[in-house]
From TrEMBL:
The protein's name: SCP domain-containing protein
Region (Disordered): 235-263
PANTHER family in alphabetical order: SCP DOMAIN-CONTAINING PROTEIN
Source organism superkingdom: Bacteria
Location of the SCP domain: 272-378
One Pfam family matching this protein: CAP
Keywords assigned: Signal
Leader peptide range in chain numbering: 1-21
Record bears the keyword Calcium: no
Coiled coil segments of this chain: none
SUPFAM superfamilies: Fibronectin type III, PR-1-like
Protein's organism: Anaerocolumna chitinilytica
Length: 386
């Protein structure tokens, strides 16, 4: 029997049409109304100031369905008109206005880029006057959805959540609910692909979702929410796991002795194939990290006892790094057993979306490969780091 499992991530797309009223487009807005003759010198000065001004506009937050913008820098303006285009040099159409400078564009697609401009406006005696158009502020597609998430409870009062890595994420935010369709509240973040929640109650069932987060050019990007994973918190006895993997296999205990505690030639061949696959994908090669080899070999031996991203002692897989005093910014794990050649295990990992995402991730620069063999069965571990 063969089985593999991971910690990694990937993508889902929202396609919600943005509906807006074009009560003013960028062309007719530029002219404004001059329905009355200016008689006050003060009014004339304000109008001239508005017309000669250029507002600033910046994007601050991008989620799967929204962009939050901040317009400003025009003295005495009543507010700002916001325009949007599908490309930097495209046609900018009016989508709404704000009186305080903040504006949130809703109903967007996670997979699309959007570009925005703004004009300040001032109303004097019923007539509206406009500034020059701002420079464009753009946002790119947001982070993708993780391809896999699981939750389990190995000790009373704790829940361990693991997921496949999200490309481009600096951190992953974790959210929890007591109802599958309820409100999910933020409970913490992780720079790895697992999270331990110590604020749960034994015997209760919880639901978890995650999404990637990153800051790019001053814009905070929040990725697409994952599917939910549920877990009933352990009170006593064995581990509770949900959802059940589709191909669950439990290693059969053996009375035989360990054939070896590591196989460097096996690991070297795995590394060779990893870098061949990365080269095909246009990604730089990984280098072996001596710091990662020892913890990888320990995890290879541990998955013989418990084939899971949770270690036999009930802690998350990532705790093995701390155990060996390894400090990383981002890390991921692939595990497998029953594939007794480097080619076989790499073929299995490359045909799994989440494992493949770890292997090809641009976030990782280093790898540790652990190999453990017992009575002809090979247990294989990959540890990735930035």
């Amino acid at each position: 029997m063969k089985r593999f499992f991971i910690s990694s991530v990937l993508i889902a797309t929202l396609t919600i049409a943005s509906v807006f009223s074009t009560d003013l487009n960028s062309n007719n807005a530029a002219n404004g109304s001059t329905a009355y003759a200016l008689t006050a010198t003060a009014d004339a000065a304000v109008v001239n100031s508005i017309k000669s001004s250029t507002p600033t506009l910046k994007a601050t937050v991008r989620t799967a369905a929204t962009t939050t913008l901040k317009a400003g820098n025009v003295s005495k303006a009543n507010g700002y008109y916001i325009y949007r285009a599908a490309s930097y040099d495209g046609a900018y159409n009016y989508i709404g206005k704000t009186t305080n400078g903040s504006y949130t564009d809703k109903g967007l697609s996670a997979a699309n880029s959007y570009y925005y401009k703004a004009k300040a406006y001032k109303v004097i005696n019923g007539s509206k006057y406009f500034s020059k158009m701002s420079e464009a502020a753009g946002v790119t597609p947001t982070l993708s959805k993780t391809s896999y998430i699981t939750a389990q409870s190995s000790t009373p009062g704790t829940a361990s959540v693991a997921w496949t890595a999200i490309n481009g994420a600096g951190k992953t935010y974790v959210y929890r609910s007591t109802n599958a369709n309820g409100t999910y509240k933020y409970v913490g973040s992780s720079t790895c692909t697992s999270f331990t929640d110590n604020s749960v109650t034994a015997g209760k069932t919880y639901y978890y979702k995650v999404r990637g987060v990153n800051n790019d050019n001053g814009v905070q990007y929040y990725g697409v929410y994952s599917s939910s994973a549920s877990v009933k918190i352990k009170t006593s006895g064995g581990t509770t796991v949900s959802p059940t993997p589709t191909t669950k296999v439990t290693p059969t205990p053996s009375s035989g002795s360990d054939a070896n505690k590591g196989n460097s030639s096996f690991a070297n061949q795995v590394l060779k194939i990893v870098n061949q696959e990365r080269a095909k994908a246009g990604v730089s090669a990984l280098t072996i990290s001596n710091e990662l080899v020892a913890p990888a070999n320990k995890r290879a031996k541990e998955i013989k006892e418990s084939f899971s991203h949770t270690r036999p002692n009930g802690t998350a897989w990532s705790t093995v790094l701390k155990e060996y005093n390894v400090s990383v910014g981002a890390a991921g794990e692939n595990i497998a057993y029953g594939y007794n050649t480097p080619e076989a295990v790499m073929n299995a990992w490359m045909n799994s979306e989440g494992h493949r995402a770890n292997i090809l991730s641009k976030n990782y620069k280093h790898i540790g490969i652990g190999v453990y063999e017992l009575n002809g069965t090979v247990y294989c571990e990959q540890l990735f780091s930035d």
